[in-house]
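Practice problem 4.
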């Protein structure tokens, strides 16, 4: 979650919530509204549309209001990107289930889910992997993204115990990232005549993990 759950507001002697508690709730609401506006904007118009002024306009506040919670543009963008990582993590968790399926099958399912996320959320996907956001340390985005990579490393290690799992996982991730970008641009469809990324995904998995035994 981006926001910690607010504690129950202490009451006054008459049982009326204090003014400071009201301000705290109002501030939390404004922060959430700004991030919500940014998430909607990036979905509709892409990462390039995420200016402070436009986010504030869509949130219904003055263009200076975001500075109360996000002193820099980078911090607001990080909060928006964090929502993307939470969404992706939820998809990974739902796809893995209890993690009891065989690792090769899990990797295929997770890779497909990753590509679908990238293609369905192109603007958010672009924002999430901006190096300046990840390197900035705001909201500790790397602490959200690296565990997702850790899942990939763990599964690759189970499929390829003979290999450097981290290197193979990184190469597979780079391959998936390339498929997502080139597919979104239409380049792969033009080059291959394909209308489904499934065969490309299977080829990528075979290239990094070796062909499946039953093929």
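Answer key:
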């Amino acid at each position: 979650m981006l926001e910690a759950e607010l504690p129950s507001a202490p009451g006054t002697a008459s049982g009326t919530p204090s003014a400071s508690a009201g301000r705290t709730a109002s501030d939390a609401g404004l922060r959430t509204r700004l991030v919500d506006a940014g998430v909607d904007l990036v979905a509709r118009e892409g990462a390039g549309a995420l200016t402070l002024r436009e986010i504030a306009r869509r949130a219904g506040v003055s263009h200076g209001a975001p500075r109360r919670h996000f002193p820099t543009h980078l911090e607001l963008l990080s909060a928006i990107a964090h929502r993307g990582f939470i969404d992706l993590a939820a998809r990974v968790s739902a796809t893995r289930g209890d993690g009891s399926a065989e690792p090769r099958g899990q990797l295929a399912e997770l890779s497909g889910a990753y590509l679908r996320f990238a293609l369905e959320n192109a603007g958010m996907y672009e924002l999430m992997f901006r190096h300046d956001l990840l390197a900035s340390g705001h909201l500790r985005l790397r602490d959200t993204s690296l565990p997702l990579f850790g899942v990939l490393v763990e599964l690759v290690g189970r499929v390829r115990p003979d290999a450097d799992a981290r290197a193979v996982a990184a190469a597979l991730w780079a391959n998936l990232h390339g498929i997502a970008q080139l597919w979104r641009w239409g380049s792969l469809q033009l080059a291959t005549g394909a209308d489904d990324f499934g065969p490309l995904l299977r080829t990528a998995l075979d290239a990094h993990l070796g062909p499946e035994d039953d093929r």
